[in-house]
Amino acid sequence: MNHKIPLAEGQASRTACVRTLAHSGVDEKTGELLTASTLAERVGWCTDLVAQMTGALLTAHWNSTDVDTLAAGADAQGRRLPSNAWMALRRLGWTTAPPEGVRVNDRIVRMAQETAGRVLRSVKWRTGVVAGVLATWPADPGKRTRAEWDAVRVAIPGGEHLPSSVIKSRTRQVTAFARENGRLPTDVFELEGVPPAAPMLLLAACDAQQATLERSVTEPTKVLLRLQLPTCPDPASYRDWTWVACPITLAPTIPANAVVHLPTLRTVGKQVRADLAYTHPVPKASRSGHTVALGVDWGLNTLLSAGAARLGEDGRITALGSGAQFRAGGVLAKQDRLRRQGEFLHAKTDQYARLADPALEGKALVLAEEIQRVCDRRSNLNQALAASAARWAVDQAITAGATVIYLEDLRSMEAGGMGRTHNPRLSQTVRGRIAERMRHLAAEVGIAVVSVPAENTSKHCPHCLTRLRHRKAPDRPTTPGWKWAICPNTGCGWQGDRDHGAWRRIAARGLTHQAKTVMDTTSTTMVIRTVIDKLEAKAVITATPKASRKDRSKTGPTRPRTHPPAPRRRGIPSPARPQSPAGKRPEGHAPTDRPGLPRAAHRHQGVATHMATISTPTTSRHRPRGAALGAGFHLHAHATPPRWAEPAPDLTVRMGSLN
Length: 659
Fold this sequence. Notes:
Blueprint: E1 11-22, E2 25-27, E3 33-34, H1 36-61, H2 64-72, H3 85-91, H4 106-135, H5 146-155, H6 164-181, H7 188-192, E4 201-202, E5 211-215, E6 222-230, E7 241-249, E8 259-260, E9 264-268, E10 271-283, E11 292-298, E12 302-311, E13 317-327, H8 329-355, H9 361-400, E14 404-409, H10 419-427, H11 431-444, E15 448-453, E16 469-471, E17 484-486, E18 495-497, H12 498-512, E19 518-520, E20 525-527, H13 533-536, H14 626-629
Parallel strand pairs: 11-14, 14-15, 15-20
Antiparallel strand pairs: 1-10, 2-3, 2-7, 4-9, 5-6, 6-7, 8-10, 9-10, 11-12, 12-13, 16-17, 17-18, 19-20
Helix pairs in contact: 1-4, 2-4, 3-4, 4-5, 4-6, 8-9, 9-11
């Protein structure tokens, strides 16, 4: 379904994708009810045919000449190539055919051409990056000079704003190839080789002769997918293809006025997953003209620190509140434990491969299954963490009335020199996935998400731009790290958590540079590329003046105060509880039922010192809390600072006599 949706003023169309499952199907020719496993088998036969034809196309055209021809956008006669990949390949005469003795319709060939065309178009960008790196190969690949950095950015198309981490990763890839082969590769096609074809069905490249999708009028959460599937692995005629009707339940996040499109099918085990795209109207997000913004700063143990700032009519920027933090120490500790477990399993697998003992093949297969389970757990944990953190940040912006979220751009940050523990933890955080999820959720409510340069956001004071001094927090003297920042400027005197100072700097920088916001054509995201000194001088948070206290000078006699009577208390302890369910009320106001879970805010979940919070019991002294009690993921993710971050109150102050 490719129908356009009507848009009102101030609206824009947004296309998103949601993953659903096709649990069953009905063979319309025989009336047979297909179970989930039978449906997955028939879809798998079709995906194998498409993947085989896709691999033949990629093998035939995996070279720089054909990729440049496709990327040029014109055929031999100079006519412009269509935007659809399968139509462009047919215009160029690049076709494929099924294996001998197998009969498929033309729409199956279309899906193979669409998949291959998308892969060939995407490799063009990597071709330019690798060609620029090879043309300006440095004398020392491990460390480029400033002149070599400028040369490689000029040689790469669009390399001026390319993250340095991308260039470094390609340099390491070329270095590994040269170490193995004794020479540099000629291009990316020799460096990478022909990629394997993904087994999937791109039904968006088909028409009604292969697949249809209809949304129910009475039940908006139901759609009916009809498609032709083979009845055997190698269909010899069109009689071996039948129509199958698959009812699919839509996710509740899809609006009722959304237009759904033909999905992409893939098999995972004995299930058929359908990546269903839909288009719906959303409020249009603007690049400039913002007065209230939410600044978001990345951290390691404190994953996100965020707060709102307001730009006044006089140009002054004030902070709205003290900000908040999203803590995920327990989740990151579990992620680190799974990483170390996966590394241990990979080391054992490599050892079995070096021994080359046939008796160890069974153990190697068991290890391979365990490695896959660990990888799945890590992937699910990352997805849950990204969804939770992004939802929290967008909710903060909605509550503050912000129209833009300024996000610290850390694409070029690489972990190095921080030790064996911090390097992998810093490198494997899900910042990219959180940012992607944040843009997805913010687009639904018309909030723009803009990437802001991260330079000096934690080094300078948010009020006077003086270089800060970092110390241990006064209320957390035993916590490792230098989390507390103090401004040495006597006229300012600001001090606080360095992450709270960072989000103030990010929000102020974004508000002052909002006229410089541009749309990145490569990633289709809003970014602020450079920091301008003249505008940066105005990116300061104006301190909110303290309210004047009421004059409390004594002008007359003190009024007598009536104290409330003391509450009634038991004179003697409660009797022992009997063995029967019934009994007397215990002493005081203690609850009679089983005590609930401990509050998450009362527990310190540092990664280094509290790994036992979420790990499997290994010693007799270990007391698991979250995992054993079944509280799940959210017991380890905090949306507010824990209580231990605040000084403990003195309960003896202003305590009167009990008599």
